């Protein structure tokens, strides 16, 4: 099965092992399981990606590809042909078109699917520097919201995203689709809860000399625009329904709100995160302009 790591030799990839799949055999079932079963996906440390933008993103960011899947009976585009010609994947699975369609999550079957290896869950993947901006999301429940937040983090130059607590799966196909390829553009780390962050927070304070943790709440009285966000900042946003946990609020140096009008009691968490990240970026660009 392609989930095994036998195609690597002393860290150097061999030529891809071509596997022809003409029935719903073990290899087919392995891929199908990666698509639908969260537990087995994480046990295997692999997940399925499809679509030009997502596959290009994974390749550009240097993520390890375990396998590419395609139907040789279909005429492949120059893009797909070039990827397969330069592939360092452990395996290439050649499926019949009907079988590939069964594995595709799109209305029009993608010409290429990839099995991608999950990166290690290490907070040290997030680079530390004086302009640090990191987002922590506490127990996100919606794949669409999480994917949109990842996309916004990418757009506003966030250094890393931390997904905390019991949350929707980062590698669920719906989450991946919502990121439109941004999943691969920044370090994303999952942790059990705020206690897992404490040694890392101490390290940041030691290395940078300063750090603030800014929480968000619709009930806060401090306007986001009135708080200084120009120093190293970790922005903590809460669950769609319950907001930030008490444990995260206790870690915060400040809790801010986005002023809104109208009948809405609050913003969707993904929308709110985008606004907050824009404000961080606005203040820092303004500070750089003033300093220049």
Explain how this protein is built.
The chain is an alpha/beta fold and 292 residues long. The protein has a seven-stranded parallel β-sheet with strand order 10-9-8-13-11-14-12. Strands 3-6-5-7-4 form a five-stranded mixed β-sheet, sandwiched between helices. It has a two-stranded antiparallel ribbon with strand order 1-2. 35% of the residues lie in helices and 21% in strands. The N and C termini lie far apart (58 Å). It contains ten helices and 14 strands. The longest helix is centred in the last third of the chain and has 23 residues. It folds into two domains: 110 residues, 2-Layer Sandwich (60s Ribosomal Protein L30, Chain: A), CATH 3.30.1330.30; 169 residues, SPOUT methyltransferase, trefoil knot domain (Alpha/beta knot, 3-Layer(aba) Sandwich). 35% of the residues are buried.
| CATH architectural grouping of the largest domain | 3-Layer(aba) Sandwich
- % residues in beta strands: 15-25%
Percent of residues in helices comes to: 25-40%
Stretches with pLDDT under 50, minimum 5 residues: 3-12
| CATH fold label of the largest domain | Alpha/beta knot
Q: Strand arrangement, largest sheet?
A: 10-9-8-13-11-14-12
Look at the structure and name the CATH superfamily of the largest domain.
Answer: SPOUT methyltransferase, trefoil knot domain
Structural class: alpha/beta
Oligomeric state of this protein? single chain
Estimate the mean pLDDT confidence. 91
Radius of gyration: 21 Å
> How many β-strand stretches?
14
What is the first-to-last residue Cα distance?
58 Å
Total domain count: 2
The H/E string reads EEEHHEHEHEHEEHEHEHEEEHEH
What CATH first level of the largest domain would be assigned? Alpha Beta
The total of helices stands at 10
User: What shape does the CA trace take?
Assistant: elongated
């Amino acid at each position: 099965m392609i989930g095994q790591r036998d195609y690597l030799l002393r860290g150097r990839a061999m030529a891809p092992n071509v596997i022809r799949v003409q029935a719903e055999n073990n290899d087919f079932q392995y891929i199908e399981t990666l698509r639908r079963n969260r537990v087995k996906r994480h046990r295997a440390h692999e997940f399925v990606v499809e679509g030009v933008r997502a596959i290009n993103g994974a390749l550009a960011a240097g993520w390890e590809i375990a396998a590419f899947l395609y139907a040789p009976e279909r005429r492949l585009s120059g893009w797909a042909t070039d990827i397969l010609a330069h592939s360092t994947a452990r395996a290439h699975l050649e499926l019949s078109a009907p079988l590939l369609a069964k594995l595709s999550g799109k209305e029009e079957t993608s010409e290429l699917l990839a099995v991608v290896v999950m990166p290690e869950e290490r907070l040290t993947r997030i680079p530390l520097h004086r302009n640090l901006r990191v987002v922590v999301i506490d127990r996100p429940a919606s794949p669409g919201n999480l994917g949109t937040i990842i996309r916004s983090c990418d757009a506003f130059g966030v250094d890393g995203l931390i997904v905390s607590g019991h949350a929707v799966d980062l590698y669920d196909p719906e989450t991946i689709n919502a990121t439109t390829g941004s999943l691969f553009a920044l370090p994303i780390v999952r942790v059990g809860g705020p206690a897992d962050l404490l040694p890392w927070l101490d390290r940041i304070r030691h290395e940078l000399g300063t750090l603030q943790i800014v929480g968000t709440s619709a009930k806060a009285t401090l306007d986001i625009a009135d708080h200084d966000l120009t120093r190293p900042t970790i922005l903590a946003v809460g669950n769609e329904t319950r907001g930030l946990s008490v444990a995260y609020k206790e870690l915060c140096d400040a809790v801010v709100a986005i002023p809104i009008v109208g009948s809405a009691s609050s913003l969707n968490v993904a929308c709110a995160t985008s606004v907050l990240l824009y404000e961080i970026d606005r203040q820092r660009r303004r500070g750089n302009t003033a300093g220049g």
